[in-house]
Amino acid sequence: MCGTRSRLPRRNTRWAGRSPRPRSVPRSGSCSITDVGPNDFLVWDDCFSFPELLVRVTRAHAVTVSYTDLKGKQRTMEAEGPMAELLQHEIDHLDGILALDRPSGVDPFAFRVEWEKLHPPEERYGPPKPREV
Q1: How far, in Å, CA of 66 to CA of 7, rounded?
Q2: Mean pLDDT of 1-22
Q3: CATH numeric code, 26-128
Q4: What residues contact residue 92 under an 8 Å CB cut-off, 6+ apart?
Q5: What are the φ and ψ backbone dihedral angles of 109, each rounded to 5 degrees?
Q6: Would the pLDDT of 106 be above 70?
Q7: Digit-coded pLDDT (tens) for 69-98
Q8: Which of 28, 10, 132 is nearest to 77 (CA)?
Q9: Is 90 designated active site?
Q10: Which position among 78, 85, 90, 116 bears the catalytic label?
Q11: Of the candidates 26, 25, 92, which has an alpha carbon nearest to the alpha carbon of residue 59?
Q12: Which residues contact 125 (CB under 8 A, 6 or more apart)?
């Protein structure tokens, strides 16, 4: 389809029937973020595309996602915190965007092994703060 934007999710056969993500995450290529809460938070994001690297990104702390389920029914889902971050991360992938495209702040890149030596896992997610305009 020349001139139109189309999402064609590819089937990941590597997982052989096992779901690599929680069952509550929409599995459709027709996902979109329809609303975001008033707060953002900093996240040290990781990705299967670059497993040894963490990227500090700013994400909405709460989102509403609209999607079409496998039976063709329109649905919405609200999420906050880590699940909101995961949904934003995966929808970015559908739009061809990686965390590498969204670095935030000074020194936004870290090797996972070095970061994990200095920080406990709970520091991956910063506290929610009002969005800067």
Answers
A1: 15
A2: 46
A3: 3.90.45.10
A4: 98, 99, 101, 102
A5: -115, 140
A6: yes
A7: 888 899 999 999 999 999 999 999 988 999
A8: 28
A9: yes
A10: 90
A11: 92
A12: 41, 42, 43, 44, 81, 82, 85
List helix spans (H) across the chain: 82-94, 112-118
Which residue type sits at 39?
Answer: N
Q: Contact at 8 Å (CB) between 68 and 80?
A: no
Whole-model pTM over 0.90: no
Whole-number Å distance between alpha carbons of 102 and 63: 18
Per the listing, tokens 């700013």 go with 58
For the record, the structure tokens of 115 come out as 């970061």
Q: Are 69 and 26 in contact (CB under 8 A)?
A: yes
Q: Where are the domains of the chain?
A: 26-128
CB 50 within 8 A of CB 89: no
DSSP letters for 45-60: E--TTSTTEEEEEEEE
Token pair for 106: 């000074």
